[in-house]
Write a structure and sequence with these properties.
disordered C terminus, 2 domains, elongated, 21% strand, Rossmann fold, seven-stranded mixed sheet, Spore Coat Polysaccharide Biosynthesis Protein SpsA, Chain A, single chain
Length: 514
């Protein structure tokens, strides 16, 4: 018996603002290519359409996608946001299942019974500052709860599941509301729903948002169809979690138990995390403000897995001793631990954000690809060693020299790494290295940039972080304007870099600055 065929529209929300050039993460393109083949070879599917929506606000484009699907006679519409990566755990976790296989079969079978469906891949929101909110990366899954009993007017409200609740959900679950970044709708689910389908709920004064457009729509769909056919039609595919690409790539929650806590405390004792040292929350929210089109013209996205290996070059022509005159700031009392490039580092004080670490790895990789494998890099102000570790992780054949402000922990963290050494900047020659990485935001940053650029060979690179600091951004822009160089910024981070002109122009720059 021939199966009934349904028509599917794929709606890509490639946000760029006001109808600009569309943009999306590359993982969606890979996933879509694989999934599109499934659609074209499935005997349950007839027409397949794809349309890109890159305008804002998202409420408008989601409503437009539904309208396009309805007017063109599509039976289903798959919504894909530009920052969601479907099937993030497929092949990595034994219980992970392909979202399209689960969602389409579920929606198709229900459609053959005359029932509408919304089914989405769950994902988590980006982390707020944990020490302020205490919530961390919250799952975007909701259920109805009642805060009291035996009340004449019960106080029902939407409850956002906590991480432990979401981590224990398996299979396909009915929920009260959910996110629609990776979501399949049967178009009939909107029949009888008032316009606009997707909208924000605001406080009475319009100053704050009370619910997002996806929660608003799916909650209303759930309530409408419960009343019409006596069942909730909104589902979460809990074996098909997506990654959410925000400040960091946010994954699914893991169940936390007393065993995990005990093991972590035992690890703290084994690693001598005792005395007046403390366990600390990490703030992953370090981001620079919006960038102009010119500043964001070239963005590097890919950072591959890194490993440490030594190429045997001992660089004996450079001094490998730390100068006693180098400034050493006092060590902080709080110690946290992180892994960069397979190396565990003890960090006194605040850590560099993970997004910046990944961006530094990307810059190092780009420089190695541009200048050849045996690159020499100077890390100015290596502090606890995070920047040198990221530079080494990004380029397995580079040698990194630390100059300027450092901590005892830097030497200890990297003491077994043969490709890292502290040295005195006065012993460096002009045009000697392939890249200088400046970890500074001092008020005299422009002068610092001028001084260190002299040590970089023509066609070498100058890089750093803290572009969100005005001292840094104005210094970098001023240098690049006077030398005719283009600034490159890594999306979502504070990391910047540019290539030094083939003909040295520092003298002209210094003269103009004076």
């Amino acid at each position: 018996m021939q199966k009934a065929k349904v028509d599917c529209l794929i709606a890509l929300f490639a946000y760029s603002g006001n109808g600009g050039i569309p943009g999306t993460i590359p993982e969606i393109a890979v996933w879509l290519a694989l999934t599109f083949h499934k659609l074209k070879t499935d005997d349950r599917i007839g027409r397949v359409g794809i349309q890109v929506f890159c305008d804002t606000p998202i409420t408008m484009t989601r409503n437009r996608a539904v309208k396009v699907a309805q007017e063109a006679g599509f039976d289903m519409v798959l919504m894909l946001d530009s920052d969601n990566e479907p099937d993030a755990y497929l092949g990595k976790e034994s219980d992970a299942k392909p979202f399209w296989d689960v969602a389409f079969t579920h929606a198709y079978d229900r459609l053959m019974q005359g029932k509408p469906t919304v089914i989405a891949a769950p994902y988590c929101g980006p982390p707020p500052t944990p020490t302020q909110s205490g919530e961390g990366e919250v799952p975007y899954l909701f259920q109805w709860i009642n805060d009291s009993s035996d009340e004449p007017r019960p106080r029902y409200r939407l409850h956002r599941l906590n991480r432990n609740e979401a981590a224990q959900m398996r299979g396909v679950h009915r929920v009260a509301a959910l996110p629609t970044g990776v979501c399949l709708f049967t178009t009939g689910v909107f029949d009888g729903l008032k316009h606009p389908y997707f909208d924000y709920e605001m406080t009475p004064d319009g100053a704050d948002k009370q619910s997002t457009e996806d929660v608003y729509a799916t909650r209303n769909i759930s309530l409408l169809w419960q009343q019409k056919i006596g069942e909730n039609v909104v589902f979460a595919a809990c074996d098909s979690w997506a990654w959410h690409h925000k400040v960091k790539k946010v994954g699914r929650p893991c169940l936390t138990t007393v065993e995990h806590i005990a093991a972590d405390f035992a690890d703290a004792v084994r690693n001598e995390r005792v005395g007046d040292e403390t366990l600390r929350d990490i703030d992953f929210t370090a981001m620079h403000p919006g960038l102009s089109d010119q500043e964001s013209e070239e963005i590097i996205h890919s950072v591959h897995d890194k490993v440490f290996s030594y190429d045997g070059d001992d660089d004996s022509d450079l001094d490998d001793t730390a100068d006693t005159d180098l400034a050493k700031p006092a060590e902080a009392t709080g110690i946290t631990y992180r892994v960069i490039g397979g190396r565990k580092l003890a960090i006194p004080g605040e850590q560099i954000s993970q997004v910046d670490i990944e961006a530094i790895e990307g810059v190092a990789q780009f420089v190695r690809q541009s200048n050849g494998p045996a690159t020499r890099v100077i890390a100015v102000n290596p502090q606890a060693g995070e920047v040198p570790a990221a530079l080494l992780s990004g380029s397995v054949h580079s040698t990194v020299y630390g100059c300027g402000l450092y901590r005892d922990s830097c030497v200890k963290n990297l003491e077994t790494e043969p490709r890292f050494r502290m040295m005195d900047s006065e012993k460096l020659e002009r045009a000697e290295v392939d890249m200088v990485f400046l970890d500074s935001n001092s008020h005299n940053f422009a002068d610092l940039l001028d001084d260190w650029s002299e040590h970089v060979a023509p066609n070498g690179f100058i890089a750093g972080r803290n572009y969100d600091n005005p001292n840094v951004s104005s210094g970098v822009r001023g240098y690049c304007e006077l030398t005719g160089t283009q600034i490159r910024l890594l999306q979502g981070s504070s990391v910047w870099f540019f290539r030094k002109a083939a003909v040295a122009q520092e003298a002209g720059h210094a003269q103009a600055a004076s």
